[in-house]
Hints:
Blueprint: H1 11-30, H2 35-53, H3 58-65, H4 73-80, E1 82-86, E2 99-106, E3 109-116, H5 122-127, H6 135-150, E4 155-161, H7 168-172, H8 175-188, E5 193-202, H9 203-207, E6 214-218, E7 222-224, H10 228-236, H11 242-249, H12 253-258, E8 264-266, H13 277-296, H14 300-312
Parallel strand pairs: 3-4, 4-5, 5-6, 5-7, 6-8
Antiparallel strand pairs: 1-2, 2-3
Helix pairs in contact: 1-2, 3-11, 6-8, 10-11
Amino acid sequence: MTYKYSLDFEKDYQEIEKKLTELKEIAQNKQIDFSHEIAALEAKLKEYKEKKYNTLSAWQKVKIARHPARPTTMDYIAAIFDEFFELHGDRCFRDDPAIVGGLALFNGVPVTVIGHQKGRGTSQNIKRNFGMPHPEGYRKAVRLAQQAEKFKRPVICFIDTQGAYPGVEAEERGQGWAIAQILMQMSVLQSPIISLVIGEGGSGGALALGVADRVLMLSYAVYSVISPEGCASILCKDVSKSSEMCEHLKMTAQDLYAMEIVDEVIPEPLEGAHINPNQTYKIVKEKLQLHLDELLNQKMDDIIEQRYKKLRNIGIFREEVFIE
């Protein structure tokens, strides 16, 4: 599948792919047997791509996580769930299109689905505020979570945002308080919670949907306390050092799994979820079912206790007393 948008590190082998396609067309049109040459080139190209994608830097993974063709929350909902019924509004101010949520069936089990929603294209991104929620978005998420608890429905969250909207109007309406409310609500919610980072998980805006019994990540997704650009701007006063900050932030799925922040890394197609969305949806659905079955077989009191321990174990450190 070909996309108009290409990442800088993809252009070298995409040029080779273009030449390979041209060679195949010549062989077909001129009826010349280039099968051995084509097979050899395809094997070398495959080997080259595997080596490249197995050694990606953190900054390159950030670029894949931000790819404009990457599947969004609504794409996953349409592919994985049945009978999705979207609910709107926070019963206070307005509906925030940067967070979507509602009721659905997951393999016949009623669930509540909540997720950040980015747009595709300029007009959609403006409508969705580039996936950056206002306070009313988080209040909507709290309302849906409380409803799920009332009707004993599991909650499945999709994380994909560079962060909560930092504008003046968001602060005026209590952005920090809204995020604190959902963190508190999710930490004690009497329903199983699974969160999946499908793209970019940035700052408290992402963490708001990240308090869960199972936290999963796609292999090219990223999750951090701040964006690389924000980190470079604050610490280095130089945004050009964003790629360097990525390494220090330990924001890749592999880093976070090693630190036990996430419970499982879900593999994507070699070049990213946008290359083969259906393959991604299939494995995501299988993993969600696996973790949901495990949670539904446990008592709710045990789930809450494990959730508490999971949160308390994040950032474990050791104290030593030195006596002179």
